[in-house]
Amino acid sequence: METVLGVVQTALPVFLALMLGVLCRKKHLLTREGIDTLKKVAVDICLPAVVIGAFATAEYTEKSLILPLVIFFAGCLGLFLGKVLCKKLKMPGTLTPFLMCGFEGGMLGYALFGLLYPGESMSAFALIDLGQAFFCFTIYKALLAGGNRDRKTLVKDCFTTPVVWGVIAGLLLGATGLYKWLGGVGIASIIDACTGFISAPTSMLILLSVGYDLNVKDLLQKETLKTAVLRLAIMGGMLGVILLINTVFPIVHTGAMILAFMLPAPYVVPIFADRPEEREQVSSALSAMTVVTLAVFAVMCIFAS
Fold this sequence. Notes:
The chain is mainly alpha-helical and 305 residues long. It has a single domain, classed as Na+/H+ antiporter like fold, CATH 1.20.1530. It has helices at residues 2-26, 32-56, 62-88, 105-116, 123-145, 151-159, 162-175, 178-184, 188-199, 202-213, 222-248, 254-262, 276-304. Helix 1 crosses helix 10 (202-213), helix 2 packs antiparallel against helix 9 and helix 11 runs antiparallel to helix 12. The chain is globular.
């Protein structure tokens, strides 16, 4: 009985927030402009506070510093496999290979991890996301943009992103030992109070936005399912190898790693579509991947309780 209640307590808020998002779209309680504003608040204000707290409190050891590099190379490998297999399977769309790597940590990962493991430091997921951010803001985004953007523009985009500055601030506090020193004089608790207050609505805002954009009607299309299954196979294969290595050389929180690799591809991909039909195809695939993530999350709730 306690296990059932624990699962419901963890999973129900997620699905309730998603359904409220769907309701807001169907009943026109929020406009597209309104939901975009909520996303901006969540990603540019609330999420940086989450990231600062996560990196400030992380334990920096040699093993933990290896983890971002592992995730970076996993992203590169996923992109390579995506390009090869998409070509071999004759899958349509120039952006389809980019759906086979990376994961949506900012708009979904942190929210779900916090609900799954409320008593644990967010740094377990943040160190994974650090490698993901390094991959996305370098190789991934450069190739995704193609020849349309120069190197200076890409660098500018990276360093004008609030989450990136949140990572930098958190690393400066945590990796230098400054946060621990501030704890000794009582200032760290003030930082915790500020970041905790600002980050409190993150999960609700993000999940409401995801629910608003969740496109269920196109999920059963053949190409959509094919794309989602191929991503699941690629990411699942890499996850299996990493978890196998982790049993011998522990470097990662197992739950955080499973969640990360079962997340959908970055939600930014449709922006780079040149044709409306490809944008719709990519958005449908992301919706299918989000449903897969929520199914995995529901299963993880059982084991986490």
